[in-house]
Amino acid sequence: MTTYPHASGILLALDCIIFGFDGKDIKLLLIKRNFEPEKGNWSLMGGFLHPEENLEDGASRILFDLTGLRKIYVEQLGVYGNVGRDPGARTVSIAFFALININDQDDDALKFHHASWISLDKRPALIFDHNEMVLQAIEHLRYKAAMHPIGFELLPEQFTIPQLQKLYEAIYAVPIDRRNFSRKLLSTNLLIDTGLKDSYSATKKATLYKLDSVRYREKFNSFWNFMPEAKEQVEKGDAKATVNK
Amino acid sequence: MTTYPHASGILLALDCIIFGFDGKDIKLLLIKRNFEPEKGNWSLMGGFLHPEENLEDGASRILFDLTGLRKIYVEQLGVYGNVGRDPGARTVSIAFFALININDQDDDALKFHHASWISLDKRPALIFDHNEMVLQAIEHLRYKAAMHPIGFELLPEQFTIPQLQKLYEAIYAVPIDRRNFSRKLLSTNLLIDTGLKDSYSATKKATLYKLDSVRYREKFNSFWNFMPEAKEQVEKGDAKATVNK
DNA sequence: TATTAATTGTGTCAAATTTACACCATATGT
DNA sequence: ACATATGGTGTAAATTTGACACAATTAATA
How far is CA B72 from CA A49, B53, B63, B65, B101, in A? Predict the structure, then answer.
């Protein structure tokens, strides 16, 4: 600090907004804070940046601590630094946006931190400005999903098109036409047919695909509008009409 | 700090990537640093966050200091915090993305800071990780402009469609078809015809429009792909063909 | 003052994309 | 075997985009 005598140090926190998908709803991984201030209240998982650690490494450390997972998809979301946001001290927090496959994480680690997966629409009020962070993260998720096929991080490595569609429908809370979605997705040539079929589905087995990661990186910036216009769109005729004959 | 005894303070810097447009090229506002380390070298304008100041206020303070302007368009771009990025001390820097109308700023303030507007493609190497910040800012500018009609902050309050087109062409370094651009833009109903004509243009006066800010905010998230496919597209026939007769 | 050069504004048509559907296939349980 | 539920492919109409021609306006100039 001798180089910059007039500057004063500030506490730098890292907070993670962690999304998961259970096949039906988008969920958030939240913890019950076990230290003061705000002990016992719901919060994002976070921690302070270590003096000898890079930002993304700090975020990964915190995510590993909570989930037992390495190589989680993380990106910066924004910085929150309003004076007084944390009554304990002047802290500035970097919010990280993380996507994980809900089935991969370590349940014991979760229990240890009093963490739970909570549906977006049932989430409790959070401490400090964590509510704002979550809102920004949701907006970011929608924004990205609108023009890129993202969300693969939220699904197993092998997934079906109907699964991906349900994810998109959850992100936007809007029904999407099955056939148009499928066509658009396939036309990207981003999915590789594994030749396998989903063993879980109760009726006709859906094809399992995996992401062509190389192509995905290359094409990521040839954006497509990925969302259909958000208007009511109920499946009429079609299946119903096929009943009897 | 008594609340968080295990956390240690870190220096928090704010650096601004400032874009301007002179009607032809996108320019960056850079300064010659007048203190150590790296004294005399090209740098982004920056400063340290004050202990009692919000982040955006800090950025605005720094921008005002350099340009003499209030109410500059600013948004967060990202945080740079690699260990060793600043050899003087462990500092973490928040990069801010700013757009200003190049004609508005105060020349005296610029001189005081040894600041210059420099075309993107002629920019010198910058200190620390400022080069990365600029690259990210350019990418951000292109990304945003690809799906939103942005850039109004880079133009005067009243502007013509050809001006806006030149801005887009500068952002992407790609020629755009005049008629298709105009049609697409007008179809958004985002521009209000002021009834006035551009007095500067040498030939036919172009219509001056202003932005419908209310509608702009409302429609911002009904994204359109705003960029034409980036392929060579030369105007053939047309004007040339009109020569003689 | 009529002509020329440069630039702006509007229109048109073909191609590509999107939307809104129908139909068929496959698996399961009765 | 058949009813039911879900997955996969096709197609015609509507909309949007891309690639152009042509007419209008202004200042300089012949």
Answer: 31, 17, 8, 12, 9
d(CA B59, CA B49): 8
A208/A193 Cα distance (integer angstroms): 6
Q: What value does the mean pLDDT of chain A take?
A: 88
Residue–nucleotide distance: B239 CA to C14 C1' (Å): 22
State the distance between the two ends of chain B, measured CA to CA, in whole angstroms. Answer: 81
pLDDT tens readout for residues A86-105: 998 999 999 999 999 999 98
Residue A156: strand, helix, or coil: coil
Q: Say how many residues make up chain A.
A: 245
A75: pLDDT strictly greater than 60:
yes
Counting one residue from chain A and one from chain B, the pairs whose CB atoms sit within 8 A come to 103
Helix pair A130-147, A161-172: axis angle to 10 deg: 130
Tokens of B213: 């800010």
Structural domains for chain B: 11-147 (3.90.79.10), 150-244 (1.10.10.10)
Q: How far is CA A36 from CA A16, A127, B2, B8, in A?
A: 19, 11, 11, 17
The residue-averaged pLDDT of B134-158 equals: 92
| Type of residue numbered B23 | G
Q: A243: Cβ under 7 Å from strand D?
A: yes
With distances taken from each CA to the C1' atom of nucleotide D20, the closest residue turns out to be: B238
Q: Nearest by CB to B94, which of A49, A79, A223?
A: A79
Residue A233 pLDDT exceeds 50: no
User: pTM of the entire structure?
Assistant: 0.91
What's the pLDDT at A244?
26
